[in-house]
Amino acid sequence: MLAPADAIINDRREWEDREWFPPGPQLAICLSGEKNRLDDLTDDELLQVAAAARRQTSWAQARELAAIAELTRRHTAEDSTDPDHRVLSARESVTEEVAAALTVTSNTAATLVHLAERLTGPLAQTGEALGAGRLDMAKARVICDVTDQLPEEVVGRVERAALEKASGQTTGQLRRRIRRIAQRLAPEAIDERRREATRLRRLEVWDTPSGTADLSLCDLATEDAHAIFNKITAAAHGIKADGDTRPLAMIRADLAAQLLHGAELPDAIRALLTETRDETGPNPPDANGCPASGDDVASPGQAVLNARTEAVPGGSVPGSDGGHDLRTGPGGDTGIAALADEVERRLRHVQGRVPPRELPHAVRQAAQRIHRQFSAARDAACRGDDEVHGRPGYRPTAVMRREVEARHPTCVFPTCNQPSHRCDLDHTVPWRPGITCRCNLAPLCRRHHRLKQRTDWRLFQIWAGLLIWVTPSGAWYLVRPERQ
Ligand SMILES: [Zn+2]
Ligand SMILES: [Zn+2]
């Protein structure tokens, strides 16, 4: 057999016999050889290339997870300290490192860390199969999901059964099959997991790319969810039968929205909804459960919002303390951009100069130095024509809050999407000696507030709105004001 590199150079039919070429560096060479020669391949060979590229992806993803698992193992091995709820745990700290490094949300990173640990631990065979390209990441996730929280011996049996057929099944087929097996082997564990999940039932809303929003009731009991859906479907059919020309799906959505709005429905429709109740079986009527859980979700958030707007005494005269002047300040837009570039250049310089082991310390020191170096200019910029810098108390004024929230519409952790109006306004340098001023305040969500409490993470505010995070591994992230 030809070496792959030779094959690319010499052989016109370079892809021949690569059908089951294992993933790894050699396959990478085959795949990257002369992209334009895809023209030469037969349809069958093109499909083989696509499948091979997918195997290669699985291989790379196995490496990604192995690296994450090793990092996690390294940083959680000595984490035996008492849990302090004000501080994020070592494990979660690793999650945040991964989030920032891969530019994913904390939730995605947490899933990756979990998957990494499982595929290098109890599901090592699945990890191997992923690395060998015998299954892809989506299927590895299914196996991980279904075996989560099952007794150890059952995990092994379900995994073996899964791997037997996984390469020939879609994720849906795989999930259904191994769920059945798990249910048979550990019915109590499966029931407990279901009960646990329904304890996290909630109402969620998120914006879509088309400028609409999705509203979703999550983790309801299966029977409840289907009963609600069936009931609305039956009513929608009734409306359609009465001559409504909207598509059924749209009627369903409109009807559900009307119900949630608490709109008075015409008697006929109300009758349809009540009529179908009998078909939904022994479950309690959803009308009791739904709005109640909705209230549970809504009220704490609302309370927070209310508290926020009331929280700032003395801030009732907007703009009265010169907030509009402070917004631009002597730093100016281009000033901050230039400063950010300069800070980045200096940190890169440090990064390139020190041995890897000294990196975290060196980057922290450098950021600290930069912070100190700009302190006089920063103070002067904030002070402007006023005599005072910041305000005497701990609480920011309403004007300050508005300014900081406009500057950073979300939590200042690099990958966090939490809107700043739901965040704490954190004093970057803790209050006293830190001051209550635009140059020392930034929105942090609860989680990243706790992350900042860790001694191995550092956050510096170099200029009002320009922040540097330094992670335990010595990585650093510059967060710029969004509206400069
Ligand atoms: Zn200031
Ligand atoms: Zn955050």
Strand order of the largest sheet: 5-6-7
Tally of discrete structural domains: 3
Unreliable stretches: 1-12, 276-331
Radius of gyration: 29 Å
Q: Helical content, roughly?
A: 55-70%
- Tell the overall outline: globular
Q: Mean pLDDT, nearest integer?
A: 82
What is the distance, rounded to the nearest whole angstrom, between the alpha carbons of the first and last residues?
61 Å
Run of helices and strands: HHHHHHHHHHEEHHHHHHHHHEEHEEE
DSSP E strands, number: 7
What are the distinct ligands in this entry?
Answer: zinc ion
The percent range for strand residues is: 5-15%
Number of DSSP helical runs: 20
- Biggest β-sheet, characterized? 3 strands, antiparallel
The helix-and-strand class reads mainly alpha
Structural features, described:
It is a single chain. With 484 residues, the protein is mainly alpha-helical. It has helices at 4-10, 25-32, 43-76, 90-102, 106-120, 124-131, 137-147, 152-165, 171-185, 187-198, 222-241, 248-261, 267-275, 286-310, 323-328, 333-353, 359-373, 375-383, 398-407, 446-452; strands at 202-207, 213-218, 424-427, 441-444, 458-463, 466-470, 476-479. It binds zinc ion (2 copies). The site of one zinc ion (ZN) has 6 residues, from loops.
